Amino acid sequence: MEFTPSVNDESRVARVDGHESAAQVIRDDFGLTGTKVVCGGGVCGACTILLDGDPVVSCLTPATRLRDATVTTVEGIADGDDLHPVQRAFLEHDGLQCGYCTPGFVVGAVAFHDRWRAEHGTTEPDRHTIADALAGHLCRCGSYEGIFRAVAAACRGEHDGGAGTVARVDGPEKVTGSAVYTTDVTLPGMLYAVIRRADIAAARVGPLTIPPGTLAVDLLPPDRRVRWAGQPVAVAAAETLDEARRAAAALGVPFTPLAFVTDPEIASRPGAPLVYETKDERKRAPNGSEGTVFPASWKGNRRGPSRTPYLGSLAKSRVAKARTTGRRGLVELEFHTAAQLHTSFEPHACVADWSDPDRLRVWMSTQGVEAMRLAIAERFDLDPAKVEVVADYVGGGFGSKLSLTTETVAAIRLSRLSRRPVKIALDRHEELTATGNRPGGRSRVSLLVDERTHGIEALLVDTESHGGVAIGSTVGALSMLVYERTPRLARDVDVVTNAPPGAPFRGPGGPTYAWALEQTVDEVAHRFGRDPIDLRAQWDGNEKRQALYRWARALPTWRERPATGSQTGRFRRGVGVAAANWLYFVDADTEVVVSVEGGRLVVTCASQDMGTGSRTVLARAVAGVFDVEPTDVVVRLGRSDASLAHGPASGGSRTTVSLWSTAVEAATAVRAQVGAGAVTSAHDGVSATARRGGDRGLRAVPFTVGGIQVGRGFSAALHVSEVEVDTRTGRTRVLRVHGGIAVGRIHAPALARSQCEGSIIQGVGLALHEQQVLDPHSGLTLTANLEDYRIPQLGDTPEIDIHFHEEGWDRVPGGGVGLGEVATISPAASLGNAIFNATGWRPTTLPVRPDRLLAGLRADAVR
Amino acid sequence: MIPASFDYVAPTTVDEALAALAEHGDDAKVLAGGQSLLPILRMRLNAPGVVVDLGRIPDLQGVCDDGDHIVIGAMTTYAAVLADDLVSTHASLLSKAVATVADPQIRHRGTLGGALVHADPAGDVGAPVLALGAELVVAGPGGQTRTVTADDFFEDLFTTAVGEGELLTQIRIPKHTGWGAHYEKFVRVSHQWSIVAVAATVRSEGGTIAEARVGLTNMGSTPLRAVSVENALVGQPATDEAIRAAVASVADGTNPPSDLNGDSDYRRHLATVLTRRAVLAAAGA
Fold this sequence. Notes:
The complex is a heterodimer of chains A (about 850) and B (about 280).
Chain A: E1 2-3, E2 6-7, E3 10-11, E4 14-15, H1 22-29, E5 48-51, E6 54-57, E7 70-72, H2 85-93, H3 102-120, H4 127-133, H5 144-155, H6 171-176, E8 191-197, E9 203-205, E10 215-218, E11 225-226, E12 232-238, H7 241-250, E13 255-257, H8 264-267, H9 279-283, E14 298-299, E15 302-310, H10 312-325, E16 330-337, E17 340-341, E18 349-356, E19 359-364, H11 369-379, E20 387-390, H12 406-418, E21 422-425, H13 428-434, E22 437-438, E23 440-449, E24 456-466, H14 475-479, E25 488-495, H15 510-527, H16 532-539, H17 543-553, H18 556-559, E26 571-586, E27 591-597, E28 600-604, H19 614-626, E29 634-636, E30 639-640, H20 655-674, E31 687-691, E32 703-705, E33 708-726, E34 732-742, H21 749-769, E35 799-804, H22 822-825, H23 827-839, H24 850-862
Chain B: E1 7-9, H1 14-24, E2 28-31, H2 37-42, E3 50-53, E4 63-66, E5 69-73, H3 78-83, H4 85-90, H5 92-98, H6 104-109, H7 112-118, H8 126-131, E6 135-139, E7 145-149, H9 150-153, E8 154-156, E9 159-160, E10 167-174, E11 180-186, E12 196-205, E13 208-217, E14 224-225, H10 227-233, H11 240-247, H12 264-282
Parallel strand pairs in B: 1-3, 2-3
Antiparallel strand pairs in B: 4-5, 5-10, 6-7, 6-10, 8-9, 11-12, 12-13, 13-14
Helix pairs in contact in B: 10-11, 11-12
GO molecular function, one term (chain B): oxidoreductase activity
Keywords (chain B): FAD, Flavoprotein, Oxidoreductase
Pfam families (chain B): CO_deh_flav_C, FAD_binding_5
């Protein structure tokens, strides 16, 4: 059927056969790609449109319901160049990061704002009202604080007129829906491809049968083994997505099922089915961490232990002796964590165009355009000069988009065969199954202190990481870097199972080590009646963290915390603290070019912005030198080709620290050439390139691990959280979180704050809600949609206060290091300690589900 | 994923809709608000040949007063139910439950009748409709109608008394004017499906509970009515202590599901806690 709805005040012709969703028609037929599809199930709100003035999710609205309707998409919210007050407020208060959920939030907030203003004038709605009104919207970056601020300010009427400020230089594209992500790219003659995945957890696969006329390739590893349910097996392309799906399903894949194991406990037993049988197979086990995987021995499905010792034997013997003598100074606890899914809102996606044999162009949702260009060249044995990688906008990655993944390899292979552009975008089910996770695991911590001085005598951390088919855990090793240099030993074991592979996830191993170590420290403080901050301060040699301890001690939240176990009654409040430690990484090879083109300042780097703000960092660096507005600077980012010098990947918290000083240096060189006046087209052609290089001091950049340069010193963070526990239902509400971050100078304060707020929200998710669950009978992922895998929303957001300690990094050019990871490590652990403070019961297993908490309280009561 | 292809018809009267259903038999699927049907089609759990869209039948929309009942058209959206004065005056329990359904976007499209016929045990409208003693009007082939009490309406998981070729057309709710009401919903994250929820509405006379109605969400394969608790509440003072004693047995004999949000024992415990809170709030205590 055919009809003509009014879309953004224009009459559009829709031809539908009845089965399409409104979102499909809006994106594919009307080309209005500002409307995003994330969950496809009405949970996340990214596809929200106004239908006859009401906000609805277009993914659940049948296209036929657009008949006779008036539709407004995000592209129609502004009046030409005149943005809606809500859009201006989002820009000023930075209610966004990667921007993928932003169009939905903007449309939903506009609907709320317009109604609110009509009924309440400029009265400010409270947080609860805003959370209820925008309940159907999710943001994985966790920009909720900025969204609260923006919606409240717009409702107060503060953005009714005038242009306002722009915190994030690419904000305007994101709030108007004009930012183009890989999922939005459509090329003439493009084919669509769909990956066929294994629906069993272990199998041997015979030769693929490809029906005549089908364009498909095999994606199995050389040993033709399936090791996890969801593993790519083959890929088929066709003229439409529908046809590609049918073609993928029609491929003949002869599976011979094999025995499999998904439970790490069973996998550790003798006689368990082996995930990797031979040495060669083990060599190909994927690396779930960011750094190099050091060799370790295997025993069945157990790899390791990898030992990180400092006087390790002494530590072991001290703990053993303390156990025998029953010393009070020995605290031993065991912790369990669940796998957390990255849940990037833009799925992994790629459009590969190899129609010209001499030039391969690849649009991909990646955290490293430059690294991917080189990886693609290597994988396909090409001159890197013939490859171009584009990622103008990236809808979140959180570590899962740092490597060359299947959809990209598959799209390139199909494009090579067909000589046509080929697009693959994963659906939500695939994204939540196959693109990695923060592995769960088990940690046993033994912390021995002197009963009188409370100084540490020994620390043992034994961890078992459950990264599915992936290896490379460093959870225990990370625990060794924090407190006193006393005898200690970490033993990291990977237990492989037939489960989807783990992958680097924002501070890999960090939140996991802190969940165990920081709660054990809290337990020591409790046992000896010590203030948990004072005890840490006694042990901690990190001056930056010492400054954070001073800050935290003065917080009213901390000063007024209750004594542990002192409360009775239904609701109990508690306050907890946890510290974080992280490494400082830098990409010393980074090069930034600043030039004048058409009278405008242009800054160029082969890097990308996945929502962390690298575009804004570059703009601010250059703008500062010339004393202009950051929005006056043209930033060329999100592209890597032979003409561009090396740019850093967005991973390991190394982007800002690599870019800032380099851009300042290049801008300063241009400034020297153009003189003191304003930059005009008379200066066109002026250009300067700067290279980051190492830091000042003895060892500029001491060593490189797996391509990542590790700088000197550790970044630090501290989180103080307040919770309220409902002791009748077991539900925990997070009321307030203070985050202290010591990474030196902050170059883009609004964005840095937003990123730190987001890390707290991800920590709330890790602590209370998020858990990958597999079906033990099939190995299939049960939590492969956003209803069964729940991430926090506005209504679950605590009040957040971020404090930056900006000193201590003067020897680093620019005076500051990265914060994306260090800010992520201690929120969950601080919540665990807060729950203990509230209830006297220590949650050791993540997530702290209400039923578990209630069972824990009851067991304690019985004891 | 893309749903399998199917045909689409959009009748403008109930009779036309029934005729379309009669013609296509079990090949047809009824589209109300689409908020549950579209995900199912997308997941290919159900591949109908024909979708019959009820969105263009004016007779199925709106709320009207019918003496001692209010009558809600099956295709009335949650948002319209929520905004309706007749509902908030005479069946405030339903308003309060509907206010907790999902989020504004879903409430703008989802319909009361669609949710009742879909009969997801975690859905929030079954328990209040049951507690309020509603009657459900079902139209069948040839346009004949029959009335089913809410007690007989919910048969099993996703199964109601609405048979093949039939449509739910109206929800008739006896007026509960002046009754206090509360819907106590327990979720882990905001705006989730109910893990357990309790719908309670109470008529008080001078601090004493004169009548009470209690419905339970997600405590079994259908919404449940806690008749013994309703009876035990009658004549009780609206105090924490009295209500606590009267509702203590609310979960007896229930067989709630076990899932990632908790096992059945935990749900039975929650039902007791939530019933106490719901009745207390409904009684204004």
